[in-house]
Amino acid sequence: MTCSALGELAPDRADDLYRALADEERRVVFRYFLRTGADSATVADLVAFAKREGVNVARDRLRVRFHHAVLPHLSEAGFVEYDPRSNAVRYHEQPSVEAVLAETVDDGLGTE
Asked: Could you give the CA distance from residue 99 to residue 66 in angstroms, rounded to a whole number?
């Protein structure tokens, strides 16, 4: 796959994005924000979206995964802000990252 927007990303940012895209549940978070155009969500919003997207994991287990693994990973990489006390997620719009996501998340990486 070639993605013209990848050339605009700093190498370490591209690495962060590749790691983020390596996990189906993290891709679901990106798809949620790309498809809805929202800049914030709750864990419950993301879990409901993941289930509609066909993620085959029990809701409670998925909620725990989002809370303890998925969102902390994306937060540490700087793609979202996650407040575990309120379960609030704020998406950080980044044009170069969004260009890569637009070409990849719904283009073969988005579904398994």
From this structure: 24
The model's pLDDT over 73-101, given as tens digits with 9 standing for 90+, comes to 999 999 999 999 999 999 988 777 777 77
Please state the three-class secondary structure of 44-86 as a single string. HHHHHHHHHCCCCCCHHHHHHHHHHHHHHHHHHCCCEEEECCC
- Non-local (6+) Cβ contacts of 50 within 8 A are 25, 28, 57, 62, 66
Contact 7, 68 (CB under 8 A): no
CB 26 within 8 Å of CB 74: yes
Rounded Cα gap, residues 93 and 78, in angstroms = 10
Q: Give the pTM.
A: 0.83
- Say which residues have a Cβ less than 8 Å from residue 52's Cβ, sequence separation at least 6: none
Name the DSSP letter for residue 1. -
Residues forming a β-bridge with 83: 88
